[in-house]
Specification:
Blueprint: E1 5-14, E2 17-27, E3 32-36, H1 43-51, E4 58-63, E5 66-67, E6 77-80, H2 92-102, H3 107-120, H4 136-148, E7 154-158, H5 166-181, E8 185-190, H6 193-197, E9 201-206, E10 209-214, H7 216-223, H8 228-248, H9 259-266
Parallel strand pairs: 3-8, 3-9, 6-7, 7-8
Antiparallel strand pairs: 1-2, 1-4, 4-5, 9-10
């Protein structure tokens, strides 16, 4: 089965600052892939490269079988950015009609799809309301509805649950699982550990580098830890050791402020790791 996205050896610079360093990843159909990392780690930059809003500095990116930026396959992609791209002076339904037309959907298709996605994001009674009257959480849900409207093969969601209450987060994740079962591939960026645990595959990123890849369960086992958060800190520590060894030829020791020391305290050790 052909991968939906293939990224090999990708680097990205903004001026003199290198924000991505040798990124390799693959997104598969029917799989929820999570990008896990702190703010500023490079998650949104990877997303923007995939959807074609920025271009790479080096490496190769293939999206739905075509080189990025993916001009010829946009109708097969759904994208939900961190910031809402909505028309506040239009109703929710008018926004959906507008974006559906951009996707090439007919009026007949939209008549079926709009009630479906509004119901999916629990905005079924809000279609005739002007978006300017929506709360931040409602705008997030409408943005997701737009991304889902044309049932894309590839769905890219940048922090999709920011500002949502727990009930709506659970409902949205149910819809993500349903889409994956139908064969869509999803890429979801997050820094929330319980959401990361819900992914089929997890890519941990820190400081522009991928520090680990695998299922959440595999990563916990590989790190030799008890939780995913501890595993992230462990891989972060190993990456720092590797980089320091490359630069100095000496392997650093674990100090009290290191991630491994933090893991020890979490487990009740209290002292240095």
């Amino acid at each position: 089965m052909q991968a939906l996205v293939e990224i090999q050896g990708v680097r990205k610079r903004f001026g003199r600052q290198e924000v991505l360093r040798h990124i390799d990843l693959t997104l598969e159909p029917g799989c929820i892939t999570g990008l896990l990392g702190p703010s500023g780690s490079g998650k949104t930059t990877i997303v923007n490269l995939i959807v074609g809003s920025i271009t790479k500095t080096a490496g190769t990116i293939t999206v739905l079988g075509k080189p990025a930026p993916p001009q010829g396959v946009r109708k097969e992609m759904g994208f939900m950015p961190q910031s809402e791209a909505l028309y506040n002076d239009l109703t929710a339904g008018e926004n959906l009609n507008f974006f559906g037309a951009l996707y090439g959907m007919s009026k007949k298709q939209l008549a079926v799809a709009i009630p479906r996605v509004l119901g999916l994001v629990r905005l079924g009674d809000e279609g005739k309301k002007v978006v300017a009257s929506f709360s931040g959480g409602m705008k997030r849900r409408l943005s997701l509805a737009i991304a889902l409207l044309h049932q894309p093969r590839l769905l890219v969601l940048d922090e999709p649950t920011i500002g949502l209450d727990p009930l709506h987060r659970v409902e949205l994740w149910k819809s993500f699982y349903a889409l994956a079962r139908e064969g869509s591939g999803l890429l979801i960026t997050t820094h929330v550990m319980d959401e990361a645990l819900g992914c089929d595959k997890l890519i941990m990123i820190h400081d522009g580098r991928i520090i680990a890849q695998g299922s959440p369960e595999e990563l916990i086992v590989q790190a030799g830890t008890e939780t995913l958060e501890e595993a992230f800190l462990r891989f972060e520590e190993l990456e720092a050791e590797s980089e320091a060894e490359d630069n100095t030829g000496e392997k650093p020791k674990h100090g009290r402020g290191s991630p491994l020391a933090h893991i020890s305290r979490i487990r009740g050790g209290g002292g240095d790791a």
